[in-house]
């Protein structure tokens, strides 16, 4: 692919939105065209799935299987219609969440076994993975408090704290196993978080410049 695919991951209130703004401006300053995506979402059909996934369904229980399948259906639409065509055209793509979210929330939080998830990952991704993942790490209680300050919580955000603790633990484990993932400590003061995000993207831009010359 000509463009690069950068995924930003983390629990609610981890500060992904601000990190994305910083990363986008740095990549543009380096002369690359950039688009941003969000998951679930990013195409008309995937946005409809997002609304479906986030809303409370009153008396109808949303099964973990339905939630899992919807996440991958949305991702399949986004990869085929937006992410891959842009990367092939040389545009860089910054993703607000990608597959690591499903592995952490559905695999870790919802405790869906890896052997159930792997076939879905394989069908949807076909080996496609981010060139760089920045995981914005936050303690669940702190992140949820920040998210609450932003407004009403959605269907997933009202889960028990233990759900987010399992999700965070899986994120940290996935990052440990992935040499293309970096952890940013967002429990620090904002200026320090921003400094670490800037440094990570600066290092990555330098690496890309080196390997392409
Ligand atoms: N999901 C998603 C799955 O379960 N499986 C999947 O496969 C996928 C793709 C998506 C939901 O779907 C789930 C995960 C989610 O529950 P969403 O609305 O996109 O829903 O949820 P989030 O991505 O979590 O959105 P948030 O807005 O909550 O998170 P952000 O973007 O990380 O938070 P941000 O940047 O808006 O910050 C929130 C507030 O905190 C402050 C900010 O100023 C802001 O007010 N803040 C800080 N304050 C102090 N110190 C810091 N270091 C701060 N950083 C941020």
Summary?
The protein is α/β, with parallel strands linked by helices.
Low-confidence stretches: none
- Radius of gyration from the alpha-carbon trace, in angstroms: 17 Å
How many distinct helices?
Answer: 8
Q: Could you tell me the CATH topology label.
A: Rossmann fold
Number of domains: 1
Sheet with most strands:
5 strands, parallel
Name the CATH architecture. 3-Layer(aba) Sandwich
| CATH homology superfamily | P-loop containing nucleotide triphosphate hydrolases
What is the number of E strands?
A: 5
Account of the protein in words:
The protein has a five-stranded parallel sheet, sandwiched between helices. α4 crosses α7 (161-176). 58% of the residues lie in helices and 13% in strands. The chain is globular. The protein has one domain: Rossmann fold, CATH 3.40.50. The protein has 213 residues and is of the alpha/beta class. It has eight helices and five strands. The protein has helices spanning 16-29, 44-54, 64-88, 99-109, 114-125, 140-150, 161-176, 190-212, and strands at residues 5-10, 34-38, 92-96, 132-137, 181-185. The mean pLDDT is 96. The longest helix has 25 residues, at 64-88. The site of P1-(5'-adenosyl)P5-(5'-thymidyl)pentaphosphate has 26 residues, from α1, α4, α6 and α8.
